[in-house]
Amino acid sequence: MADISEYYRAGGERTRLTTGGGLLEALRTRDILTRYLPPAPARILDVGGATGAYAGWLADAGHTVHLVDPIAGHVAAAAELPGVTAAVGDARALTEPDDSADAVLLLGPLYHLLDRADRITAWREAARVVRPGGVVVAATISRFASMHDGFVKGFYDDPRFLPIVERALATGVHRNTEPGRTWFTDAYFHRPEEPAAEAREAGLDVTTVAAVEGSLWQLPDLDRILADPERTALLLDLLRRVEHEPSLHGTSSHLVTVATRP
């Protein structure tokens, strides 16, 4: 976990959700949350919520939000957001009481738990702290994301990148230990069928699996489209219509899995 912590302490992805594919991810994730979270006011536990990109937005919408993250700097930044409390913690060993949240977000932890047993533990902890009938919403990165990203961002110009992609395609494990690396840190990249299977093993009922960006995160002129409100509205509407289409799930950079506690 040292490489992961170093990546985020150095400000990794601090502005990722503000432009291009990252902005599309944020807009689509908010759209999905709006439709599947309970209405405000609800108590939401944002596990691995970083500096509060979603926690602050949810608090503004009238929810009570507590954020948990392993990086102290993230926690300090999130705690400054109006209506958000925050604490250092681990998705695999939450200090929250049983049945204490109306909804639990796992919009980051499953990225960085490379062992399946650890991911199941995180799912089970979310299931423990959410109330019966409550919602758990988890984000995962596609098995094929780095393969596409290498072309979109020109990463294959560096010969060290291809072996990282080849390992991720074969095993799901993305290891980035190269000196001076600018690529994403160590992570696990899920196949489309894996998140739902993990949630079910943790005792949750899966409601849906939705493609977040579909294949459109790869568009070279995405910033121009997202700068146009009418085009953005059209883009979001069309992605919403096809988000449950299984044949498109592997093309999306991220998937969101929504589950409920029986």
Please provide a written account of the structure:
The chain is α/β, with parallel strands linked by helices and 262 residues long. The protein has one domain: Rossmann fold, CATH 3.40.50. Strands 1, 2, 3, 4, 5, 6, 7, 8 and 9 form a 9-stranded mixed β-sheet that branches. The chain is globular. The chain starts with a helix and ends with a strand. This is Methyltransferase domain-containing protein. Pfam families: Methyltransf_25. InterPro entries: Methyltransf_25 (IPR041698), SAM-dependent_MTases_sf (IPR029063).
What order do the helices and strands come in, and which of them pair?
Blueprint (H helix, E strand, L loop, with lengths): L1 H8 L10 H17 L6 E5 L7 H6 L3 E6 L2 H8 L4 E5 L12 E6 L9 H14 E13 L2 H8 L8 H11 L1 E2 L12 E4 L3 H8 L3 E7 L10 H5 L2 H14 L3 H4 L4 E7 L2
Parallel strand pairs: 1-2, 1-4, 2-3, 4-5, 5-7
Antiparallel strand pairs: 5-9, 6-7, 8-9
InterPro entries: Methyltransf_25, SAM-dependent_MTases_sf
Protein name: Methyltransferase domain-containing protein
Pfam families: Methyltransf_25 (PF13649)
E-strand count: 9
Report Rg.
Answer: 17 Å
Topology pattern, helix = H, strand = E: HHEHEHEEHEHHEEHEHHHE
Helix content bin:
25-40%
Any idea how many domains? 1
Determine the mean pLDDT.
94
Task: Please state roughly what percent of the residues sit in beta strands, choosing from under 5%, 5-15%, 15-25%, 25-35%, 35-45% or over 45%.
Answer: 15-25%
User: Which oligomerization state do the chains in this entry correspond to?
Assistant: single chain
**What is the number of helices?**
11
Low-confidence spans:
none
Described by strand count, sense and barrel closure, the largest sheet is: 9 strands, mixed
CATH architecture: 3-Layer(aba) Sandwich
Beginning-to-end CA distance, first to last residue:
32 Å
> Which CATH class?
Alpha Beta
- From the spread of the alpha carbons, the general shape counts as globular
The CATH topology comes to Rossmann fold
Q: Which superfamily, in CATH terms, is the homologous superfamily? A: Vaccinia Virus protein VP39
InterPro entries: Methyltransf_25, SAM-dependent_MTases_sf
Pfam family, one: Methyltransf_25
Protein name: Methyltransferase domain-containing protein
Organism: Actinocatenispora rupis
